[in-house]
């Protein structure tokens, strides 16, 4: 083969999950919940399977689900997305992101991304002949330097990818960040791809500010979301993309030949489950408790906590404790302490000494307490 992705191997999530399995370690590496989704949601899937909703869904997705998403997004942002021609149901946010990137990126186009960055963005840009251009977040993940972002724009820049709440750092973008973004994309006529899969997991009273909430920004944005995190159903791979109708028309040309359509009875079930806002509005306090339990359980290890404002990840710095490379430490802790994490360097383009690990706290409370005990013994 002449590899399309010569630099890419197996993802760090697969690598660390396998290592966790081999060493029977607690897997705080790959981000997925340990607990099951709601029994009521499972009953709905069962209901729709028994009703015979088992053949291809419409290419754009089950209309009832698109309508439910339109209603929910309108209530949160006052922006209207038309269910018929501005909402597409995808195979998880991964497909939504890939197709959105593929829709806008042509050979030689540059795409600005913030690093550390979720691992699917760069390969998606490169497979479409584009070039990722990186803006590195400050080490404390405290602010975005918009002068630096501006300085990265060239005449080849086509799009910018944002992610709030952010994986892996847990950073939440502020209203000022979104305003700055709006000014920048307006000035340079750029597309925006906004990854909002953790929209309902946000802590300490902060608010999620969607790209959809600023009309001029929404007019340039492919908003990618997922029900995997919101309903503890990462294995269902049901996500979506919201975008203006001219964007959606191009997006669907690619979506229809990539997957055509997405698993039918699950779309009906999610559409019905979404009608009760409590099903997603309670998620932030649920995860905030878990973040606090985990942080308390590791407080005597000497690991320093980075801010985690949202998502289900806690980053910790170990520079006072060890000189090891983060991958080496993550592997050693999996083998010796029995707790797996993700080395933060895997979210950066250039290998560097970051001395930071990412732990996923989407786990049962006793698992988090046990992980704390195990880490206390080894660190
Ligand atoms: N974006 C981010 C930031 C994620 O963390 C994830 C999954 N962990 C995805 C996209 C992919 O979502 P999905 O599982 O719905 O494909
Ligand atoms: N998004 C999850 C994480 O950040 C993993 C998803 C995957 O394995 N591709 O851990």
Work out the radius of gyration.
Answer: 20 Å
State the low-pLDDT regions, or none.
none
Q: How much helical structure, as a percent, in the residues?
A: 25-40%
CATH fold naming of the largest domain: Aspartate Aminotransferase, domain 2
Give an overview of the whole structure.
With 379 residues, the chain is α/β, with parallel strands linked by helices. It has two domains: 12-30 and 282-378, Aspartate Aminotransferase, domain 1 (Alpha-Beta Complex); 39-275, Aspartate Aminotransferase, domain 2 (3-Layer(aba) Sandwich), CATH 3.40.640. The chain has 14 helices and 13 strands. Strands 2-8-7-6-5-3-4 form a seven-stranded mixed sheet, with helices on both faces. Helix 5 links the parallel strand 3 and strand 4. Helix 4 (92-104) runs parallel beside helix 5 and helix 12 (283-297) runs parallel beside helix 14 (365-378). The longest helix has 15 residues, at 63-77. The chain is globular, with a radius of gyration of 20 Å. The mean pLDDT is 96. The structure holds 4'-deoxy-4'-aminopyridoxal-5'-phosphate and glutamine. The site of glutamine has 5 residues, from loops. 4'-deoxy-4'-aminopyridoxal-5'-phosphate is lined by residues 31, 92-94, 118, 163, 167, 195, 197, 226, 228, 234, 237, 239.
């Amino acid at each position: 083969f002449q590899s399309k992705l010569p630099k890419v191997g197996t993802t760090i999530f697969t690598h660390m999950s396998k290592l966790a399995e081999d060493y029977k370690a607690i897997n705080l590496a790959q981000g997925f919940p340990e607990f099951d989704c709601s029994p009521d949601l499972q009953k709905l899937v069962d209901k729709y399977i028994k009703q015979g909703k088992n053949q291809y869904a419409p290419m754009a997705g089950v209309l009832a689900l698109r309508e439910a998403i339109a209603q929910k997004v309108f209530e949160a942002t006052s922006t209207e997305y038309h269910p018929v021609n501005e909402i597409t149901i995808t195979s998880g946010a991964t497909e939504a992101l890939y197709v959105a990137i593929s829709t806008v990126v042509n050979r030689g186009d540059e795409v600005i991304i913030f690093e550390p960055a979720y691992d699917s963005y760069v390969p998606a840009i490169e497979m479409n002949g584009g070039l990722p251009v990186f803006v590195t977040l400050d080490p404390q993940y405290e602010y975005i330097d918009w002068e630096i972002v501006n300085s990265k724009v060239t005449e080849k820049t086509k799009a910018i990818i944002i992610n709030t709440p952010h994986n892996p750092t847990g950073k939440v973008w502020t209203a000022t960040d979104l305003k700055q973004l709006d000014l920048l994309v307006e000035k340079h006529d750029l597309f925006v791809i906004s990854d909002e899969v953790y929209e309902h997991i946000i802590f300490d009273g902060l608010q999620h500010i969607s790209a959809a909430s600023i009309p001029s920004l929404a007019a340039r944005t492919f908003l990618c979301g997922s029900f995997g995190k919101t309903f503890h159903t990462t294995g269902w791979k049901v996500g979506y993309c919201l975008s203006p109708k001219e964007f959606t028309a191009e997006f669907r040309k690619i979506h229809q030949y990539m997957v055509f359509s997405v698993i039918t009875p699950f779309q009906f079930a999610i559409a019905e489950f979404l009608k009760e806002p409590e099903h997603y509005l309670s998620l932030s306090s649920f995860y905030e408790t878990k973040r606090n339990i985990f942080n308390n359980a590791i407080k005597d290890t000497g690991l320093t906590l980075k801010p985690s404002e949202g998502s289900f990840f806690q980053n910790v710095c170990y520079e006072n404790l060890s000189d090891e490379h983060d991958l080496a430490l993550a592997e050693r802790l999996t083998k010796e302490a029995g707790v797996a994490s993700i080395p933060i360097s895997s979210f950066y383009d250039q290998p560097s000494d970051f001395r930071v690990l990412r732990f996923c706290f989407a786990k049962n409370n006793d698992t988090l307490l046990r992980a704390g005990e195990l880490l206390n013994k080894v660190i």
